[in-house]
Each structure stands twice: as C-alpha cells, then as structure tokens.
Amino acid sequence: MSTFLRTIEFLCLSLWLGSDVFLSFMVAPGAFRILSSRDQAGAIVGYSLTRMHLVGIACGIVLLLARLLRSRMFASLLTPAALCVVLMIALTAISQFTVSAKMAMLRVQMGSIQATAADSPLLAEFTRLHRISVMLESGVLLAGFAAMYLIVRELAARS
What we know:
This protein is mainly α. It is built from 4 helices and no strands.
C-alpha cells in the first residue's frame, strides 16, 4: 500500500508540473502565434489556465492526502516537500480566485483587449495583473520542482 500511495504522490505532482509546463511553453505561445485574434488566443489560454488551476489544486490535495495516509503522521505534512506543495496550492488559488478573476472582469469591461487603447487604465491594470499571474505561475513551477527533488531525496534517504 505504501508503494501505491507514493506512486499517487509522484503522479499528482508530475501531472501538475507537466500541465503547467505544457500550458506555459506550448499552448499559450502557440495560441498567440497561430490565432489572428489576440482576444481569441487569450480566451483559449484563460479557459485552459482555469482548468489547469483546478486540476492542480485537486492534485495537490490528493498528494497531501496520499502522503498522510502513507505515513499515518500529521508531521508528514510539515516536511519541506509537503510545504512546497502547500505553497503551490496557495499560489494557484491566489492566481485563480483573485488575479484571474480580476483579469476576467477587466476583459468584460474592455470588450476587446486587442481594440483597447494603449493608454487605457483598464489595459494598464490588466497588464499589471498579467505580470502578477506569470510570477505566481513561475512560483508554482519552482515550488513544484523543489517538491519533486525533495520527494525523490526522501525516497533515496530511505533506500
């Protein structure tokens, strides 16, 4: 059972990191390169990002539950690896439920980001929030890579 639960931990973290890398480095740049409308590309990326965030949060929760079931100790949730996952969940929740929500409201107010004047305060705020979103996503990736390293190191230390 321990091996199964550890596999669930790795699977959850791998799915989350893989989807984040794929969206950030393949889907988003591809959508903006291929589609003629920046508004359509943004809609695709926004839709995908929402789904990725929700799946990521679910993966993080399942990972922590598997870790707790495997170790049978609440202290396992206070290890550096688990704290990295908690950080990933927190950053993702902030991105999804605060930053992305505000960006969506601004998109509605502007009607079209592509047609909005460059000196618009709405566009300036959207751009600022986009930078925050990218920083949060970068933090999720870095914390995820750290979590993967730390989980592997834990396993190696037991061998």
